[in-house]
Amino acid sequence: MVKEKGKVILVTGASSGIGQACAIALAQQGHRVYGTSRRPRHAEADFTMLPMDVTDAASVQAAVQTLLNREGRIDVVVNNAGFGYGGAVEDTSIEEAQAILDTNFLGVLRVCHAVLPTMRAQASGTIINVSSIGGMIALPFQGLYSASKYALEGVSEALRMEVKRFGIHVVLVEPGDTRTQFTANRRNTRGADENPVYREAYRRTLARIEADERNGVPPETVARTVTKIVAAPQPRVHYLVGPFHQKLAVLVKHLVPAGLFERIVMLVYGVK
To answer: Which residues belong to the active site?
Structure first.
């Protein structure tokens, strides 16, 4: 049984943006929330912060064990920690590709490995993986970010089928453009400003992407969707969150010829 004060919830990447908004909203719903960050600055008023580096399996295990020692169970995980790289695929080094996959994809896998034994023993639990519309529609000069989210989509759908018989739900939340520090924190690949072959096209595309993000929905919009998922007895697989035209684009991608959709995306982002 879940204790009377609500569910025990772990939110990775909770120091800012979508993760912080989710942790605050869930705590306000009466849940016992633990947020994580590599270097937590202080304990938030609404939830408890724990140190966790999702690229380090020992760090992930230690944070999960701390939570279990305090609460004895874990009901929900929101896998939100991640970052973005900007630059052409050709300008992305293998080391840079490994770094973003290590956080955005393998980081989620490490957290799942840490919590699934407890959830199976409980015969209950919900894993909410924060993906992106960029995991359903690839954007130019965001190739490795999209790759990390496409991978997350695939593994989440497979995991959902594998653990359903244990009473565990796996859910994907796919935000579109959202106003957070993600924009300012996006890293450029080392070659992004050096290779003249792509430099001008990248700058045009990045300017459009950043403008859209700054005019996107607030992170609280995503958090409201997450709180609904936590309350749902049978959450569905996919939850798109964001501007209507971006949700529509996901539908249109499957309705029009691939070449036409590609031309539309290139036109929108100024790729000639």
So the answer is: 15, 131, 145, 149
